Amino acid sequence: MALRINGQEQDMALETATLMDVVLARGLKPERVVIEYNGSVVPREHWFTVNVVDNDIIEIVSFVGGG
Amino acid sequence: MQDYLEIGGVHLQSRLFVGTGKFASNQMMQTALEASGTELATVALRRVDSADGAENILDFIPKGCRVMINTSGARTAGEAIRIARLAKAAGAGNWIKIEVVADNTYLLPDNLETLKAVETLVREGFVVLPYMSPDLSMARRMADAGAAAVMPLGSPIGSNRGVKTKELVRILIQELSVPVVVDAGLGKPSDACECLEMGCAAVLVNTAIAIAEDPVAIARAFSLAVEAGRLGYLSGMPAEGLQASASSPLTGFLHQG
Asked: Which of B59, B141, B195, B213 could pair with B200 in a Cys bridge, judged by C-beta atoms 3.0 to 4.6 Å apart?
């Protein structure tokens, strides 16, 4: 399955995967990141139930220093 | 005397807002923020691709200091709005600094895109503080759209050149009823003092503190400078004159007839 994550094409080896699987596969701590899924923010409590599909566009962001 | 700054229904005692970028470490940033006495710190959102570093910058914001997410990286109103929504979903509250920049050399804000983002985000219930070029018409439109303050630049971001836009900022202060906060370009405590003396409600400083040899010392210096400037403004400073006006009595002394 091919996803577009943070602007990069990514292949997921799994047949089915949730947003939580995507986060954990990248070694990210779920409580530290926020997800925009196909243009909409998805609350963390829904990450276990949203199944990603081919060509989904996912942004994963977190807080950094800034002015 | 009770003097505070009210933004979004919140009373701020400190008129120094501090950015959290460019510090050598989160620990240094935290100590500098504490020394500054700030009650409002800006933070950014960025894409994360791997688990680089276990630290969460929000854990290093001092207690009692509010966080305001900036939309840096946004080149259009639409991108700024998406960042604001992400920040809110992340539990960072609803204070947002809109920063829409489409110019990579000077990082000057795009006032038109910024205005569009203000209009949308105010409707969505955000407390919106737009970073802007000090243009009176645009500042008025942003205030009319519900901006909680306007934040004109003093000089380009990170340039440390001081408040080169002084004459335009002065007009905003005179003509607007929302707080005017000089954001960007302030390099020295005296720059911040100058802004407060002329009636700015607050200043936002990042680079000058973060990259100083001693960020903690300069954070304290900025805090004192902001307080001095504010007191000066409130004191009703006398007007400038071209001729001398003696401070000591000039008559009736040695050469008295």
From this structure: B195
How many Å is the Cα radius of gyration of chain A?
12
Percent of chain B scoring above 70 in pLDDT: 96
Where in the sequence is the domain holding A51, given as residue range(s)? Answer: 2-61
Complex ipTM value: 0.89
Number of structural domains chain B divides into: 1
Is A41 a member of any domain? yes
Residue B130: domain span = 5-48+55-234
Instruction: Report the length, in residues, of chain B.
Output: 257
CB spacing of A67 vs B56 below 8 angstroms: no
Give tens-digit pLDDT for B229-244: 999 999 998 888 889 8
In degrees and rounded to multiples of 5, residue B2 shows phi and psi of: -85, 115
| B40 contacts on A by Cβ (under 8 Å) | none
CB-nearest to A65 from B20, B82, B88 is B20
Which residue in B has a C-alpha nearest to residue A61's C-alpha? B47
**Active-site residue identified among B22, B88, B97, B188:** B97
Q: pTM value?
A: 0.89
Number of H helices, E strands in chain B: 8, 10
pLDDT attached to residue B52: 63
Using an 8 Å CB-CB cutoff, list chain B residues near A24.
none
Asked if B72 lies within 8 A of A64 by C-beta distance, the reply is no
Report CA Rg, chain B: 20
